[in-house]
Amino acid sequence: MTQAPRGAADTAAPTDSPVTARPLPALAWAVAALIVAVVLALTFPAWRYSVSYAWSLSANYLLTWGPLVVALAFTAAFWRRFLAFRPTDIYLGIMVGVVARAVGIIVQYLISGRMPGGNLILGGVSGIYIFTAVIAPVVLAPLIEEPFFRGLLQGSLDRVIGPWPALIATSVVFTLVHTIAEGWSVTLIVTLLVYALLAGYVTQQTKRLAPAIIGHAAFNGLAALISWPW
């Protein structure tokens, strides 16, 4: 009996069940969640200063990630097929995060003439700062955003418009959503787009989310390390 090549198991598409083979309902959930999240993000600045900082912070993450989590919960049968793991995913993810962050540093230096540096924190590093600078971006964001963007959105678009258009469309949407949430700058747009393209590519090639999740954690972790008030 002829054996499959050794690397075939790592790159072959997951076997589809009748549920996971339905991309249109999954895509509909993804689009609806994005619309709700963007609308909430656009209306949030109008009332953010009318509540305490702690409530404002909680509301910011809830409004941004809440619709995505709901969509993931209702489409788990579609995107969970990307949850396999290989040891090489660690290396791939770290490379994605490091390369994308390096591009961001270079772009910032070319535009502003300055390298990124630490933040000035009056009164010391608080628990809220640790949450916003480390826990939320390094732990929570990869676990929520990668299953949504690379698993649900890119995975469903892949079945509808093809792998490369899906990769590009998802990367652009990822960049636009984060620009709306975090503010516009050339450095931010270029850095996010490079990261999204790399994360989308490794997901497309491996059919696994682990490299993108690790890459997202490395990407944001380096930003936290650079901006940490040493």
Kindly describe this structure.
α6 crosses α8 (186-206). This protein has helices spanning 8-11, 23-43, 53-74, 76-79, 88-112, 127-161, 163-182, 186-206, 210-227. It has a domain at 82-227. The longest helix is centred in the middle third of the chain and has 35 residues, at 127-161. The model is unreliable at 1-13 (pLDDT under 50). Helices cover 74% and strands 0% of the residues. It is mostly helical and 230 residues long. The protein contains nine helices and no strands. This is CAAX prenyl protease 2/Lysostaphin resistance protein A-like domain-containing protein. Pfam families: Rce1-like (PF02517). The chain crosses the membrane at residues 26-47, 59-78, 90-111, 120-144, 164-197, 209-228.
Count the strands?
0
Number of DSSP helices? 9
So what's the overall shape? globular
Task: Quickly give the structural class.
Answer: mainly alpha
The major sheet is characterized as: none
Q: What's the average pLDDT?
A: 84
- Please mark out the parts with pLDDT under 50 across 5 or more consecutive residues, or reply none: 1-13
Helix content: over 70%
Q: What would you report as the Rg, rounded to the nearest angstrom?
A: 19 Å
Order of helices and strands: HHHHHHHHH
What is the first-to-last residue Cα distance?
Answer: 61 Å
Beta-strand percent range: under 5%
Outline the fold blueprint.
Blueprint lengths: L7 H4 L11 H21 L9 H22 L1 H4 L8 H25 L14 H35 L1 H20 L3 H21 L3 H18 L3
Sum up the structure in keywords.
230 residues, mainly alpha, 9 helices, globular
